[in-house]
Each structure stands twice: as C-alpha cells, then as structure tokens.
Design brief:
Blueprint (H helix, E strand, L loop, with lengths): L4 E5 L5 H12 L3 E5 L10 H4 L7 E4 L4 E4 L1 H12 L10 H31 L5 H21 L13 H5 L1 H4 L2 H4 L13 H11 L2 H16 L14 H8 L3 H11 L1
Parallel strand pairs: 1-2
Antiparallel strand pairs: 1-3, 3-4
EC number: 2.5.1.18
Protein name: glutathione transferase
Keywords: Transferase
Length: 255
C-alpha cells in the first residue's frame, strides 16, 4: 500500500500547487506540511531544502527527499503515472513534454515572479524594471499563444503535466500585473485563454484550490493572497509599506 508523500509548502506561492495538482490528477496519497512564508529560510524547512524555496517532498515509499517543482513533477510522472494519464510512451512526445515543463520553469515562473516583485514588493518604484518584466510576460504569452494555435493541448491529444504546470502562475496574473477586477489579462491571447479555462474546470484544480483556500485562511490570508481585512490593491500596498513589526501589529488587530 502506498504511503502518503509529504509535501512541504507555503500556501500563497504558485509553484507548490503545480505539484499538488499532479498528485490530485494521479490520485497519489499525500499530506501537506504548510508553514508561513517567513519561515522558508529557517529550520526545520532548510533541513529539507537548503535553498529555502517551496515546494519539497519527502516520499517514504522510496526514501527520497526532493525539491524544485519541475524535478518533483518529473519524478511523480516516472514513479506514479503508471497508466500514462498525464504523459506518453513515445520518445518524441515525452521529450516535448519536458521541453514545455522547462519552458514554464525558465520563462513563465521567473518573468511572472519578477513582474510581481517590481509591481508590488520592491522597496522603490523602478518603472524601467517594471516595464521590462511586464513586457516579458506579454512576450511569453504571445509565444505560448502561437504554440497553441489550432491545438487543444501543448502535446498530443490530451492534457498532460506540461499543460498543468502553467496553470497556477496564470491564475495569479491579474494580481501580479495589477489588472482591474473586471479585466481578464489573458483576453488578448485567446488561445491561451481558452486553454487556461479548460484546465481550470478540471476537478483536480478545483480540489487543489479548496485545499489552498483553507490553508490560506489558517494563516490569516484571503484566497487572493492578501491578509484578511485588506480589500483592494491600494490597501495592500499600504500594508506592504509598513515595517514588519507594524505589519504584525496590524494582523494581530484583525484576528
């Protein structure tokens, strides 16, 4: 009988949910060790991942500890996707899937992350940096839109782990780029938009988001990642401008 895989994660970040999504799709037993982002560079987590990034897994079935979301996904596919639900047997298709997984990790993740950082978190306003990464996000989406022209999925005729790896970051795009609530940031990329919506309707994604929202609530966060009691981006930016001590006082006052 398969023992549950332990997944270490901080709920707000997108990368961990790539792994949870694959676990849900494959129906592999797992348990989550959730902790606050403030503790990602501290023990005991750095004993699991010395790089201090999430996610990481500990698999008691193979005695393997593994970090980096792409490496974890490839491992789960090799060991647990025995029915090839999210992959293929064919040599060419297998490597095309890995190509797109690397494209997600080298293109989408870093560009989206830097766009979010310079839009919301950097200690000074740097319009040139913000413009650069916003432009790179749109360039990346344009490439992806072209790849998906006339296709339902990236490779072959089914949704695979490569497709699913893009979903968590695209779900955060409106916040990362500070889009108004009534504007879909994928609207100008119709192939990406329809592909994205198909994946969001999968039961595995809905289940993963139910789990995520519960873990976020436990940490005093709303589903959009903002602390409870903050209702718009202007309030969130005011919160981020506070010192860590004042942020904690504000959070304590909301509880």
């Amino acid at each position: 009988m398969t023992k549950p895989i332990t997944v270490w994660l901080t709920p707000p970040g997108p990368n961990s949910w790539k792994v949870i999504l694959v676990l849900e799709e494959l129906q592999v037993p797992y348990e989550i060790k959730a902790f606050k982002h403030d503790d990602v560079k501290k023990t005991p987590y750095t004993d699991i991942n010395p790089n201090g990034r999430v996610p990481a897994i500990v698999d008691p079935n193979t005695n393997l500890t593994l970090w980096e979301s792409g490496a974890i996904i490839q491992y789960l596919e090799e060991v647990y996707d025995t029915e090839k639900k999210l992959t293929y047997d064919n040599l060419n298709e297998r490597h095309q899937l890995n190509q797109f997984l690397h494209f997600q990790m080298s293109g989408q993740g870093p560009y989206y992350g830097q766009a979010g950082w310079f839009t919301h978190l950097h200690h000074e306003d740097l319009p040139s940096a913000r413009t650069r990464y916003h432009n790179e996000v749109h360039r990346f989406l344009g490439v992806l839109n072209g790849i998906l022209e006339g296709k339902q999925w990236l490779v072959g005729d089914k949704c695979t782990f490569a497709d699913l790896s893009f979903l968590p970051w695209n779900c955060r795009l409106d916040i990362l780029l500070k889009y108004p609530d009534d504007v879909d940031p994928l609207a100008e990329f119709p192939n990406v938009q329809s592909w994205h919506h198909r994946m969001r309707e999968r039961p595995s994604w809905k289940r993963a988001m139910e789990i995520r929202d519960g873990l976020m609530s436990d940490q005093g966060l709303q589903p959009n990642g903002m602390p409870k009691g903050i209702y718009n981006m202007a309030q969130y930016e005011d919160f981020l401008a506070k010192s860590p001590e004042d942020q904690q006082k504000w959070l304590d006052a909301q509880s």
